[in-house]
Amino acid sequence: MEDNRFVVSTVEGECKKNGIHMGANIISRPLRSSLETVERGVTNAQPDTWLHDAGWRRKRSLAQLTREALPRMENYRNSKRALKRPSLGELHGDHLITEEEEKTQNPRDTKSPTPAGGIKLGWIQGVLIPCLLNIWGVMLFLRISWVVSQAGIGWSLVIIALSAVVCVITTLSMSAICTNGEVKGGGIYYIISRSLGPEFGASVGIIFAFANAVAASMNTIGFCDSMNHLLKSLDLQIIDNSYNDVRIIGAIALFVMCVICAVGMDWESKAQNFLIAIIVGAIVDFVVGAVMGPKSNLEVAEGFVGLSTSTFVENFNSDFKYSEGMEQNFFSVFAIFFPSVTGIQAGANISGDLKDPASAIPKGTLLALLISMVSYAMMVLFTGAAALRDASGNITDLVISNGTVTNYSAVSQCANSTLFPCKYGMHVDFEIMQLMSAWGPFIYAGCWAATLSTALTNLLSVPRLIQALGVDRIYPGLIFFSKPYGRHGEAYRGYVLTFLVSLLFLLIAKLNAIAPLISNFYLASYALINFCTFHAALVRPLGWRPTFKYYNVWVSLAGFLMCVGIMLLISWIMSLVTIAIFFTLYLIVHYRNPDVNWGSSTQAQMYKTALSSAHNLARTGEHVKNYWPQLLVLGGRAHARPPLVDLGSLITKAGSLMIIGDISKEKLSYKVCSARARADNEWLQERKVRAFCSLVHGFNFEQGARALIQATGVGKLAPNVLLMGYKSDWTTASSEDLVAYFNVLHTAFENRLAVAIVRVRGGLDYGAAGGGEEGAGSLTVTSSGSGELHVRRSDALIMHADSDLDIHTGSSVKNNLPNILTLSTSRSFTITDAKDIKDKKKKDKRPTDMHRQIIYNAANGIELSKDQLTQMSIFKRKQESGTVDVWWLYDDGGLTILLPYIISQRSAWGNCKLRIFALANRLNEMELEERNMANLLSKFRIDYSSLTMVQDITEPPQAETKALFDETIKKFTSDSAAPECRISETELTTLSGKTNRQLRLRELLLANSRDSRLIVMSLPMPRKGSVSAPLYMAWLEMMSRDLPPMLFVRGNHTSVLTFYS
Description:
By secondary structure, the protein is α/β, with parallel strands linked by helices. Helix content is 48%, strand content 9%. The chain contains 36 helices and 24 strands. A 10-stranded mixed β-sheet has the order 11-10-9-12-13-24-23-20-21-22, sandwiched between helices. The radius of gyration is 40 Å and the shape is elongated.
């Protein structure tokens, strides 16, 4: 805990309860213990004590007695308010890990989609009222009567019930997600992205934000229609009392509402309270008016006949007619009604502004849904029981006796007339509810409040969603619109974008044309919410612990399927468009691959799937047709031997396993191991190599290699090929190192692993150029005629140099990249320093050959020529036309021919053809031997350009070759050689025949494969107890010296090729 923290304790004399002091409050300052002060080098430390009133007994707090942290909420926060518990290294006594280093190793994500501070709302003000305002929208007063006229009372109730089922299931799913941890700003986007990952969340977030912006325009159009009706009744108009008036009034209304939302939550909340009161009053006004009945005969002629069973029965069944430019049916009417119940997400949209989102969202949303569905059903019943579908509006059609209407059936006869169509009734009069109310003007006020409040809620949610997307940097184009302004961090630019989108759709000016458009978007969002809960509940990661228990995994799945099914039934074309938009947005995020880790259920599913697949694979028998070389690459640090790693990646690519083994003699701390693992993984990722790194430390090379061979992998996902570099310094290395290298081969064969050894001109080890163990430092470039040019970098950066890239010191360097020079091709590139350009021109105006004279100096002074850098990328770059020569001398199961075939199939080596060299068994049957080998290769379906049968392998080598061999082993045949590395005369004599064959192979290689791009050759078998380490290495030396890159291969003599189907 921090030194300046004061603790409030309670002590009451000697009274204790369960070991805890009870009584008055005492403020005390925990001091470090004596041992800790000594360890930290603090001198003259004050004794540990408590400051308290006289007469109290001195006690120590728990914080003074132990370094352990108590379980507190602040230790688990991902914010700046979070406290930092002691690390395991601190408690364990690892004094090498300082506090600053721990912060560097474990940085906390302090980003929050919503700015800190601002007004926080309760569940009534923040969820219940916004949900009611969003649900009680344009349909409540302008389209509920039209829905009844088309679908009838019965089917209208079915539409409401179906909408309610969808919304209730979605609310239950949403409540489960919202109560599974803190919900921050962003609403639907935050919920889905943290549950299913950024791809799903961002895609649905964009669709949902668009739907809300269009819904705002739809409700504004409803307000404008009502306003036009009022102006028409007063014989007033702006232009035409039609679509143009809607556009003018709507644009002004949208602008004013955006200003209200941008002013802040306080103003918006006050406006909501006023609007909800008007809507409730208007509903009451309508119910009272329906109960009271018509106030004049004119109202009866216009279709309001009062509550009656006959009217209820007449309006109970459906009467689908041609309306709004199309023949209506159940799902078309449902599509127009459904946006009126899409307000359940209103609380989740402003979840960042709620005091307690986890409890407020389920409580407020479910109650709002119950109230709104009951009110809609009540409106359907009263409207269907008191109003006619069609009415002429002519009093003369009424039968009146003593001032009382006795028969009004003739009023509806206009429905069958084409000359005099009906002008009133629920089918054509969208303002009939104003006619049915006790006081007509109040319905206007209620309609305006309902439409404007829903539009206001939609306009309020869109900028917050845009801001959340921008803060998470999912779509770069939205970052500009997410900038916060003011004390409350409002996204004013987001309001401008929302206004423009809503204004664009407002220009359509047709309410029923917009409603089906956004129904699919809302249904798609609700489908993903249900799928989130289903997926999380099915996978059940340990982090899935929602406090809301009233959900079910299969109910959520049913909700998902129901939403998708309704989408297709409403309009399969719009559904396909919606799905296409969703997947386009999904692929954009997937391609960008944002660097986020939110612990989504897809990650948990990935782990479970991988684990299940590994178990299933372990129980599945191996088959030669499914064989893949799984490599254990003894490459040390990943960046230390780029050619070795690149060759392994060339073989495995994305279809097989590659593990890079790193062996350290020194015992490393956890900090160093973590740093090495991060650096290696970043280097592999930057180089696009799919591999795992495995580090063992505290072992010598032989012990570490044995540990890796025996323990690396799990189940069938274990290496079956050991790939290692050729020990080019074997003649100068210590006897222990030479024997250890040789023994690793024996260990591999003992564990039935195949072995591959690669030798490249100039060697494989470029670890010294990485800048040391930590990889820090600078890269210096020198060229003839110029001074030193320095490209500086911090410890956390690297210089990534592509072949044709012009690098300047002033340019930015990408963060978190490995500290190693990486080349992708062999072409040259220049590194310049802006401040030295003028001086360089003055000092040397002579043309220089940068291809040959440029020299690269690592931070530790190691110089690398261009040729050496080219060799570093020999297996990475695109190869020109050439050959891969395969010397398949001995049958090892087919691995010697399979590996070069795999390499030749890669795009970088696609221009290289295979040439096969094989030994002939009988000299007098050369033609038969060649035909048999060709037939074998044909059955294996191995494409090759030529086949050569080697017949003079038993010929004695030339004297020059023999002399070179004798010179090579001279050191190891003298008496001064170490006993374990001495080549005895007996050994030389016994193995003279085998030695001569290796020497003869050298001559054949020089004669046939000197110009090839790669040579793959059978590895001589090091028989235990028969051949010594120096003699065996001398064989390899003779066969690979002064030749192109050489890959020695020896399979484990189990078939890896088959000609059976």
